[in-house]
């Protein structure tokens, strides 16, 4: 039986050299790995993000593909990319989903688990 599933994992990093805390601008990158853990080849068509800062300010982002790509993944294949966002607070979170279409026309969403964007803790 066919199964339709992309598994998404995330790594985040704070970019102090691009951030300006005095102007409440905190820049983060996130590296995403999308793996086709289903049994049917499928293509990532679009993305939907909900980005929330520590003040509960929410921004929704929708768009085609990821970093200019709409990868077609065979079962077991994966695609990695890195993107970024700026927050007005030193902490926030992101969650969302990818809209995908399988080779047989079946449409499904791949959930992006919520992840935290946060300045690394410093010890004095």
Automatic annotation (TrEMBL):
It comes from the Bacteria. The gene is apaG. This is Protein ApaG. Residues 1-124 form the ApaG domain. InterPro entries: ApaG-like (IPR050718), ApaG_domain (IPR007474), ApaG_sf (IPR036767), Uncharacterised_ApaG (IPR023065). PANTHER family: OS05G0170800 PROTEIN. Transmembrane segments: none annotated.
């Amino acid at each position: 039986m066919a199964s339709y599933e992309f598994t998404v994992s995330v790594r985040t990093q704070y970019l102090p050299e691009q951030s300006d805390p005095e102007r409440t601008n905190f820049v983060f990158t996130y590296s995403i790995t999308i793996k086709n853990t289903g049994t049917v080849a499928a293509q990532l068509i679009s993305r939907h993000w909900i980005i929330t800062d520590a003040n509960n300010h929410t921004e929704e982002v929708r768009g085609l593909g990821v970093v200019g790509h709409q990868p077609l993944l065979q079962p077991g294949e994966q695609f990695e990319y890195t993107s970024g966002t700026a927050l007005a607070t030193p902490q926030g979170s992101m969650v969302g989903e990818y809209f995908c279409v399988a080779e047989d026309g079946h449409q499904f969403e791949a959930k992006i688990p919520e992840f935290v964007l946060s300045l690394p803790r410093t010890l004095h």
